[in-house]
Amino acid sequence: MRWHSTNREQDMPPSGQYIIDILDVALDVIEGMLQNEPDFQRVSDLAKQLDINRSRVYRILKTLEQRGYVDFDPHSQGYQLGLKFVSIAEGILGRIDLRREAEPILNELAQETGDVAHLMVLYGHSAVCIQRFQGDHMLQVATPIGKPLPLHIGASPKLLLAYLPKDERENIIEQMDLIPFTPNTIKSKDQLRRCLEEIRANGYVVDEQDFECGVYAIGAPVMDHNRCVVAGITLTTPESRYKPQIRDKLIQEVVKAAKKLSGRLGYQHVDDGQEDG
User: Fold this and answer.
1) Measured CA distances, 157 to 98, 104, 117, 185 (Å)
2) What span, in angstroms and rounded, lies between the C-alpha atoms of 268 and 271?
3) Which of 89, 91, 102, 129 is most buried, taking the most CB atoms under 10 A from its CB?
4) Can the peptide bond before residue 38 be classed as cis, meaning omega within 30 degrees of 0?
């Protein structure tokens, strides 16, 4: 997390000097193939179209074929983009739709509380923030967008782990290295399991300085039309503003925001108790 007192991001240095030539050419090949879909394309045709050395195009296509990104047709001796791109596109589109639906809700939560509202999703064995909005308080506590966070710390990371199917959850827990970040960080896997059980029972999570001293976070699950947890909404606030008398109010606001986003994703609440999937 980082502390800052303005909404302005730090200036980024020019990135042109970091271009990787062969990767740049490979992306040209992929984009060139996309223009000619759904036809199979021969190496010589692509090389001529893109004005790239034929042997270079061939090596790129063979690498992409080995990784499943293109398919080779022996009959035409041509290549076509593979179904792996469909899988990637579906994942990206799903996140984009989620972000778009979440934006007004996160913004409203941030403005009502004055703190930072985050949208976090599971990414492998980590959690990442994919969107956030800041309130109007001078001192803000924000999680960087795109930075992977361990699943045993913070609010939404633990929440996302808690709602995984039991076998998948246990598999991840067994592989976890519970690195301590503060004196409040969970120290054992049994303690983590008890924490996750409590999260599922409550329907929300409160992180009291287990990731960074002086930082508190409240998280609630976002569910889709299949009643699967697809994200977590987290509100972060500094210790100076986290008072017992407003704790319950913040929990209510975060849970309300998560339910609102769940509704926009097609979730319909059913009073049948919490399930430990």
Assistant:
1) 17, 22, 14, 13
2) 10
3) 102
4) yes
Distances (CA, A) of 125 to 208, 209, 277: 22, 21, 18
- What does the angle CA 159 – CA 165 – CA 168 come to, to the nearest 5 degrees? 95
Rounded CA gap, 237 and 54, in Å?
57
Dist. CA 265–CA 222, nearest whole Å: 9
Element spanning 244, H or E = helix 244-264
Q: Domain 93-264 in CATH: superfamily? A: GAF domain (3.30.450.40)
pTM: 0.64
Q: Is the confidence at residue 274, as pLDDT, over 70? A: no
Are the beta carbons of 127 and 156 closer than 8 angstroms? yes
> Quick one: CATH architecture of 16-82?
Orthogonal Bundle (1.10)
106-163 pLDDT, tens per residue? 999 999 998 999 999 998 889 999 998 988 876 667 777 888 889 999 899 999 999 9
Domain regions of the chain by residue span: 16-82, 93-264
Q: What is the pLDDT of residues 71-119, one digit of tens each?
A: 999 999 999 999 888 788 777 766 668 888 999 999 999 999 989 999 9
**Count of CB atoms within 10 A of residue 192's CB?**
19
User: Strands (DSSP E) along the chain, which ranges?
Assistant: 2-4, 70-73, 78-81, 116-123, 126-134, 140-142, 205-208, 215-223, 229-238
